[in-house]
Prior knowledge:
The chain is of the alpha/beta class.
Amino acid sequence: MKAAFFLLYLIQLLPFKVIHKIADAVGILAYYAVKPRRKVGETNLKKCFPEWSEDKRKAVLKRHFQHMAKLMLEYGLYWYAPAERLRKFVHYQDKHHLDNALAAGEKVILLYPHFTAFEMAVYTLNQDVPLTSMYSHQKNKALDEQILKGRHRYNNVFLIGRTEGLRAIIKQLRKSDAPFLYLPDQDFGRNDSIFVNFFGIPTATITGLSRIAGMTKAKVIPAIPTRNADNTVTLRFYPAWENFPSDDVVADTQRMNDFIEARARENPEQYFWLHKRFKTRPEGEQGFY
């Protein structure tokens, strides 16, 4: 593991363009070499984009593997590169939505779905804005220590263990002015999940966004990171959602999934397709994977 960290350190010393040329090659290699994840991606894209030709799904998935390789090879930048270097690669769009809410003393939940440029964007944002987020400990001790060290790089983040649950999130949000960075768009199993549509598929989805917003009176401001053609990243902030939460947690959760789906349709190659998003199925329904 230490050898891997050293390799990432060396990679970050390279010019930005060279890092991404390497990532593009690694991504294509991984597409062919990592068959289990390729199968997951193929299944997800076939379910979500049945109208596409097989050739188009294949091309998007290859490009997605390249975006995932960019995410992985950039960890050296996140962990070791000077903070000002990261700033050169990330640009904000409509950040006033967040700034105005914080200036008004509002509690804020940043709805932050899993797009492949999410780490680059958040490591830059955390230089400017204190954040609260959740963390799942890694089984490998060395990796866990390095990730935690990286997360705390700017001494500007408060991490809540995923096993601590909703209560810990509510407590921290109530006492802190830091926005809560929330990534709810993965399959966390049947507990605390309901089935709402995602790409027209009943999908186990946690209801935390509605519940947390309701209990803390926090504004929900979506933030979406998008990698540009030159491999820089634009972090776009959206207006705070009005009339959220409602008195219908199902409608609220569907609203969240509809928003994430719309953004994924805009940049399908950059959404996390290698995760088994549809693993948990309604009772009696055959599994996808």
